[in-house]
Amino acid sequence: MNILIALLIGFLYAVSVYLLLRRSIVKLVIGILFLSYATNLMLFFAGGLTETSPAFVVASEAQNVVMTSDSLPQALILTALVIGFGVAAFSMVLIYRFYKETGTVDLDDLSDIEKL
Amino acid sequence: MNIVLSIFMLFGLAALAPFVNQRFPKISGWLLSIVPAGLFVWFLSKIPAVVQGLPIAESYPWLAAMGINFSFKLDGLSLVFALLITGIGALILIYAGYYMRSYQKTNRFFGYLVFFMASMLGLVTASDWILLFMFWEFTSVSSFVLIGFKHEKSAAREAALQALLITGLGGLALLAGLIMMSLPYGNFSFDAVINTPELFLESKLFIPATILILIGAFTKSAIFPFHFWLPGAMQAPSPVSAFLHSATMVKAGIYLLARLHPVMESQELWIYTLSVFGVVTMFVGAWFALAQQDLKKILAYTTVSALGTLVLLIGTSTAYSITAALVFLLVHAFYKATLFMMAGNIEKKTGTRDIRKLGQLSRFMPVATVISLLALLSMSGIPPMIGFIGKELMYEAKLTAPEAGNFILIMGFLANAFTVFVSFRFAYEVFWGKSVSFEKPPHEPDISLLTGPAVLVLISLVLGIFPNQVADLLGPAFQAILPGEQLIKLKLWHGFNEILLLSFLTVLLGIVMFAFRRKIIRLVSYMNLNFFNAKLSQKFFSGIDVFLSLTKKKTAVVQHGYHRFYLMTIFISAGLLLLLTTNAIDFSVDFSWHQSPLNYLVILAAIMIVAGSVAVITAKSRLLALIATGFVGIGITIIFVIYSGVDLAITMVMVETLTVVIGAMVVYHLPKYLDYSGVGSRIRDGIVAVFFGGVMSYLALHTSSPEGIDKISAYFAANSYTKAFGENIVNVILVDFRALDTLGEIVVLALAAIGIVSLLKLNAHKKSSR
Description:
The complex is a heterodimer of chains A (116) and B (770). Chain A is mostly helical and 116 residues long.
């Protein structure tokens, strides 16, 4: 399974890079979303894959902790997810605003717009 | 009280100076001079200790791991310079307090000037090469702002820029040279190099390091061919010319050469380079001083000549020459600072410093005349001024020079005669000569304007008569430059010998030249125009222009303005670098622990992700692309759920839903989805994407940690309930162990929300302007 997940991570990165290299600003933003998918998954994968063992301690057994799935990467990803959402929402609105101001969604037009 | 404190006191004073000047504009010069004057006295009190061979050393760790320390040492050489800096500095501040009144924005001027003073003091007391370099750059920067003080004038701006670029370039060369020099030692302390020079002298980098250090010293001290920035620097107000560009800053290069001399004295490269460049600069400076019409330019070129003389004397490396260098260092600082201040006074009182428009000033300002004349006597080397002793020693040094003595002697003789000529011309044309009608009759400069020059001239006179008063001070300095030899005894009267004859002939030639001054000036001007019209300054600027246009072309290639190609560059280079690093660590991937049991749900999720991604790439409508993105997100959520990331899954579902909803709202407003790229660029981007994805897969296999390894999470697991009373470890980490991170996250979200609102609302006025 690990190899499958590793390949999946690479696949997500590839999709992200491909989208980031497009001229359309919408695809650029979707590319950013994919970049955070890939990175989150990579971080998750780095903590090791543990099935059916969420990072919980039971109060009664607090003195005698059984090693569960790695909690630290999960906490980091959680933060990243929320911030990623902030970035996504902001960039979506930025696209809207960009289009309203410039009348185009083609990033290559940007250098011409500067000259106006 | 110690050295560091004295430097920091001056830096503190630099910060306070603007406020002092603001609050007490009438007496700010006197007030500000208290601190440097106090420090001068403190340094004086250190003479006995230094004479006894007990230098004061201080060291504080700075970047100790790299062998860089905040180290200071006050030995004989440093002490001479420290006394010059604080003593002349105090006098200059008194002078500037009055002189700068007619200027705008003088508050900052005093800040800059005192900042320079502090930097210069740091430079000469530092005993760590990096620390020295830091102060060295400080002085370059303060010189830049002070030359460009009258920044409304384009000439001042150009001169400031030129000085900065040349000394800055030299500074970089110096840094490289100092690092190369210190490499064999592993630290940057002076002592390492001075105590065991062999390590450096025998290292492969000896020649490049020496050349770079020499470039640094030569640019700073205006040695040919870098001398042209110094006459340009005369755009600065007179206190600056007197302090930075004659008495102290330009001597920094000399200081560095003197400091390194004990290390280098056995090296022919060092001796010959110093001698050759010294002689050339000495002569060139004196030659160009001959026909100048601007008082300050005359003084600037004689300063260039004096700096060349100092380099030559260090390069000659005999007991006579080093003694001469030290005496001349003092002599020159005294008379040149005086003359620059007097030139400023003359300009202030008459409105010009063009020698052709001046004359008969002795009638209007007798005291100023006497002071100037004494300083000019010292400059021409006429007894009883200390300048005479300086010149006698110089001749002695040149006569006893081990090599090429005759050539050096002739050049030195001519340069000295030229200096005598210039001094006489200065004295005669300004104070006597033709009568000139002034708009309003000039009068004696004010007491504040005369204090500094008078004190310095008195010192020159007293030391000329009782020269051994400085021998105590110069002895330890001599030891620092040429250990193993003794300082030559200083006397005003040497008896009738060939040196006295030389001195006499020098003055005689100067006077003869003076008698034919019109012809000489015409001849020199003619030759300057037709034969020596190098215009180094203009060449320098056209060189800069060429460099700028090259840079522009280069920038146009690298900074092309297409985001896609920037990103492509980043991804390709990041991929290659990652590949290189992981290869370096371990090329083989250990697959033994990658055997987690097969799980069909994961395969389903993978299919969802792949299908969604393909749909995103091929989608003909934006809405479809967005929904497919959400689909991929759900696929990842499934993987989180399977592998025990419950909190992640919950958050992910919410985030995905909201993202798709917001995205749908936005894309609704956008125009039809267009295909911008052709097949060629798709294939190219595809290759880049697959390459980068492959690297990341490979990296993922490398980084995923095997079971049983020590994890930081064990700490969280152990303390989650016992200390933070939470069963869900991930949540406890977020709200307890790493609560500040979460706070930051909330701030980011709030900022994003504010940004979104302003982006949506802020369109009213834009619309109307279109």
